[in-house]
Known about the structure:
Layout: E1 2-3, H1 10-31, H2 41-56, H3 60-78, H4 83-98, H5 102-120, H6 125-141, H7 144-162, H8 166-179, H9 183-201, H10 209-221, H11 225-243, H12 248-263, H13 267-285, H14 290-305, H15 309-325, E2 339-352, E3 362-379, E4 406-413, H16 415-428, E5 433-438, H17 445-459, E6 464-469, H18 479-503, E7 508-514, H19 517-531, E8 541-545, H20 551-563, E9 568-573, H21 578-587, E10 605-609, E11 615-616, H22 622-625, H23 627-637, E12 649-654, E13 657-662
Parallel strand pairs: 2-6, 5-6, 5-7, 7-8, 8-9, 9-10, 10-13
Antiparallel strand pairs: 1-11, 2-3, 3-4, 12-13
Helix pairs in contact: 1-21, 2-3, 2-4, 3-4, 4-5, 5-6, 6-7, 8-9, 9-10, 10-11, 11-12, 12-13, 13-14, 14-15, 18-19, 19-20
Amino acid sequence: xxxxxxRFGKASRSASALLALALIAQAVFIFSGTPARAxxxxxxxxxxxxxxxxxxxxxxxxxxxxxxxxxTLAREASGEESLEYATAATWLGxxxxxxxxxxxxxxxxxxxxxxxxxxxxxxxxxxxxxxxNLVGLYQAQGRDEQVAxxxxxxxxxxxxxxGVSMLEALxxxxxxxxxxxxxxxxxxxxxxxxxxxxxxxxANQPGIVPALxxxxxxFEQQGKLLKAEPxxxxxxEIRIAVFGPRSPEVADSAxxxxxxxxxxxxxxxxxxxxxxxxxxxxxxxxxxxEKTIGAMEALAGVYKAEGRDAEAERLYANARKLGxxxxxxxxxxxxxxxxxxxxxxxxxxxxxxxxxxxxxxxxGDRGPLTFGVATVSIPRDHRLGALExxxxxxxxxxxxxxxxxVLLSVDETDKTKFFEDIADRVRKSSRKSAFIFVHGYNVxxxxxARRTAQMTYDLGFDGAxxxxxxxxxxxxxxxxxxxxxxxxxxxxxxxxxKDFAEQSDADNIYLIxxxxxxxxxxxxxxxxxxxxxxxxEKFDEIILAAPDIDADTFTRDIAxxxxxxxxxxxxxxxxxxxxLMASKTFAGYRRAGDTEGGVTIxxxxxxxxxxxxxxxFVGHSYYADSDSxxxxxxxxxxxxxxxxxxxxLSPVKSDAGRYWTFKQGHAPAx
Length: 670
């Protein structure tokens, strides 16, 4: 959950720090097994926290027993028509769905839906949540007609409840104008949509691709092919930069260009574009795939237009043969997926759980250093800086990649293949670059992978994005365990950094660490640089976001001994970072990432005070969920600009030295 950050007085800040501490203490109470009175609201709330925790650990028997007890107690306390009973039934239905007990799950979820409709009316957001839960169940069963019907109802409820911003509303208005035959008006609105998208996201960022495609489509309909062509080319270039030249998204853009060239009679250019799309789709999906077959048919059409009848007929015949072998997924017309896929390389010393679900592949136990590739979806209407996810507090558990940032797959590979693939991605990037992200405290593998993909997408980074994931317990109550595991992972990260510098073929390597992950990174670098001082110069920039490191230790031991050198170092800190304030309570001294009581300034380190920007509810993820900070990172990583050259920053002089802060004009509205 994300809220706009405001500057409060000292009393309010202290209260927020106590809130962060209370969350940690609350988690300790819940998971220590301390019982609460069965019928109390506290007990019911504890059920909603404990059930998903047990399920995540694979303790399905215990989770179901607890959910069934919750249902029984809710029935006894307030009856089967109560909202408490609806919540309990939803949790039990969720668990039954995970065990493929679909009939039992559907009965419970429908019961919960009926209770909420009766209590709130048919258009309440909680009703949409219940509908969404049924959608997840029906998707698992392949009941596509029910999915489509409920999905339309959900969209209508949510649009009415929360409204739609101007930018998000424009595609719908454009489509309505097209449906009425008012193409010229739709085209003008599409140009406005494109201008607004460029203003929000930047001229060459992935966020503008939907607007580029919308405008290009309308220009094509008007026969203005010369106006559509540069828009389609720009979308293609952005997708190459973000996803790589052999990605399915690039195939989609190549096909769109091919169709435009075919309309224009530029058959040789159309042929090259369709061949490119076909080659990518064969490699990505195989021959027996609807999109691959579509590219074959398109190419055959060009051959026919060129008078190459024999080649065209052979290709048509092959496409028809393959088409008969394809099992159609949908029995009705369906739009293409409205999400992109980001490929994230990873190294981790978490233990593989053996689970088939990508979200449960790695838990919090220690394991050997392993390597692999994860794929993550980014929805079409993704907002810059957002990490869209179902809300557990609204009991949403349908991970729809069209709406959320979802970990789609996790595939382990051997070390040799891992570095070969990294080097291939690096060589194809514009600057032969890569970044390595080390996550912080209280983070799962799945959330770290999602965050890495979101940063890659929002930055428009075309190099190799790499996640290093250490065994965080992903629990507020496990701060001390995370500290121990952070220390344990240093050696593995040190060895990985050495191998990466030697085998990635990257000319530019950026290291990004957050929170407690900065301890893992700086500890690894310390040992690496002691062994070979020249290794420091292998890393172009070290970026420390909200570092959970003792401020005095940082300035005395880390900055001059580890971070010094030709490569740059950037530290993002904030006075609104309540998680670090809680950490200070445990440690007794100010953290380097907390500006309350002073800004951490050290030679060779560019300190950026991010206190004025929006944050998450404990003020700890501003490095990736703020469009201001992401824009600043883009200037730093993609363009190599030091603070004095970055438009969002202003210098501040203090007795300790100079640091930087975000200009008022670049801070989001409060």
